[in-house]
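Holo prediction. Input below; ligand is pyridoxal-5'-phosphate.
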Amino acid sequence: RTVYVNGNYVPENEASVSIFDRAFLFADGVYEVTSVLDGKLIDFHGHIARLERSLKELGINYPVDKDALLEIHRELIRKNDLVEGMIYLQVSRGAAADRDFMFPSADVKPTIVLFTQSKSLVKSPAAERGLKVASFPDQRWRRCDIKTVQLLYSSLVKNEAAKKGADDAWLVLDGKVTEGSSNNAYIVDENNTIITRELSNDILHGITRKAILQCAAELDLKVEERAFSIAEAQKAKEAFITSASSFVYPVIEIDGAKIGDGVPGPIAKRLREIYIEANRAAAI
Ligand code: PLP
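Structure of the complex:
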């Protein structure tokens, strides 16, 4: 693979960053994952807008040049012959001369890294099968709206979920689901209303979430942005998750309880189809 590091395209085994990089020592960095279909980027501008917001919230001094970033994404797609998959982008506060909790001086340059990952997104066993999820207390820091590389707790619960025979973890704060380990969480009630937690600092403002709520509106489905409990989810007609790299995955089981008939629901399936259709057409 050819990757991008601080202005250079290099083979992945020649890419390097400092051991003093603050992403490495303090998880002091932010990231984005943009999907690629037919060699084109899905919702690139949405991801770049959120990147700018994450950088601003943390005061990382990286002036976002949208055109330049688009060109880097496209160049990586070309160099790696990427047809379907994702592009990972990370910006950290950079490498100071030493390990210090205080931010480095303004002349320390941020570190920027991008790489591609090939993955079949449209044809997906997980989408056909549906996911089993297990719930865990949400013990992440309380600024989940910032897409930082501080992913240890999410990684931990995903592994704990796997030990329980589940595919993913849903996180619960004060008795209500916040989101999945790396995705937004939804249920569908008996009136076909889609319910998903409202935007706040407790969840990542998913780029796919925004697009899916638009798809729901096009299908004339009602949407309620509010928190729900695991017990309510277990009684729901359907459940599903969304993220850039999964689009929509149905959820068929929560903490061992089958959702509906225990098979992917028609609303999740339909939303997945129209999301793919619309975003494939709009990809750049
Ligand atoms: N929530 C969390 C915690 C995530 O890590 C992600 C994506 O990685 C999402 C939600 C979904 O966001 P998006 O649709 O922008 O990929």
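The mean pLDDT is 98. That is the main takeaway for now.
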